[in-house]
Specification:
Elements: H1 2-12, H2 15-29, H3 33-36, E1 52-53, H4 60-70, H5 73-85, H6 88-94, H7 96-108, E2 119-120, H8 123-131, H9 143-158, E3 167-171, E4 189-197, E5 203-210, E6 213-216, E7 228-230, H10 231-238, E8 242-248, E9 258-269, E10 273-279, E11 281-283, E12 289-291, E13 295-297, E14 301-303, H11 309-314, E15 321-333, E16 336-347, E17 350-357, E18 360-364, H12 366-370, E19 374-381
Parallel strand pairs: 1-2, 6-10, 7-13
Antiparallel strand pairs: 3-5, 4-5, 4-9, 8-9, 10-19, 11-12, 14-15, 15-16, 15-19, 16-17, 17-18
Helix pairs in contact: 1-2, 4-7, 4-9, 5-7, 6-7, 7-8
Amino acid sequence: MLKSVLKHYWFTGAATVAVVASAAYFVAVGEPDSERKTVKNPKSKPKNKLSGLINEGNTCFINATLQALASCPIFFNWIDSVLTRKTSDITEHYLRTTCSLNMTMAVINNQHPTIDVHTFNSRQLIQSLEKHGWNLKSEEQDAHEFFNMLSTTIDEEINKNNKISKGISIDEQATTSVCQPNSSSPFRGYLASQLCCLSCGHKSVRYDAFECLSIPLPKLDVRNAFTMLNVEGLLKQFLAAETVGEVQCDSCSLKNGKSVFLKQLSLGKLPQCLCLHIQRCDWTNAGQLTKRQDLVRFSEELNVGNFVYTNRLSGNFKPVTYRLRAVVEHLGMADSGHFVTFRRNIVDGRTRWFYTSDTFTRTATFDEVLKSSPYMLFYERCT
């Protein structure tokens, strides 16, 4: 009952009552010591500081991902708006992971109305994910896998009774627009896969949903293991046209009905938040897993206008710009290491960069950010 009252007043903005309800909840329920310390106290952190996240035992991949997500205001506001539209009973029983994520992001961003601490733990979020059947106790965990795990769970909770199409096939004459439910994540976008028969010219387009684009690195040059790459070049390679042989063509006049197709990937529907994953793990000829150390350059803004499906159709390559919000970096080798995050946060009306590593947080320069080795990049659309 107290928890329902707390959520109601938190979302409606009645801060004073929320403080009382929050304090009563912690006393009545009896949270663990690490969580009991999260109630606001006179020695609260400065307003220009982010909260760190406690490592619960090889959970740096979780902490790094949460810091990156918390740096995206569009995503944070979307989660908040979804919970505001739901009743307290629904959020209590069906949106546990979504509620836990919302609270965690508010705390580490120093925006929670009643919790103000230097460090916070993600135990409640982890427990809610485990109730969905996810195994987070394995020693081999990955930030990209956790992002997909979290995205899938939130999607299931919010759209539990909605059927969401993951793939849509459209013929040559169909519209290029793609419909999504209003509650789709800001990270939800669609890849347009166009197939063109090189024998008869028949075209078809398929749209496939994504929350994160996983981009492979080019084949390793053994003569130069530390190659210099850039994000734009990797996207161009990932979305480049390729030929596909022995494909059944319903419109083709060939006797066997099979032909060679030209396949072209494009960005069919742009997400508001863009997540890119750089595939750094590779297998050697001897079957050994290794980590690629290629230097991948990136900048504060990313223009994807050349990769948008409608732009390619019209030939009008108007710019579509995303602004960098966070960089998740993996330190170490393929089978061991540590995840850290460089992320933005607004302090006194100004955007500043921070470095976060579990409980440790500090300000950072943008030059430091640019020198990092990106494993995941988080952007928000600005044009």
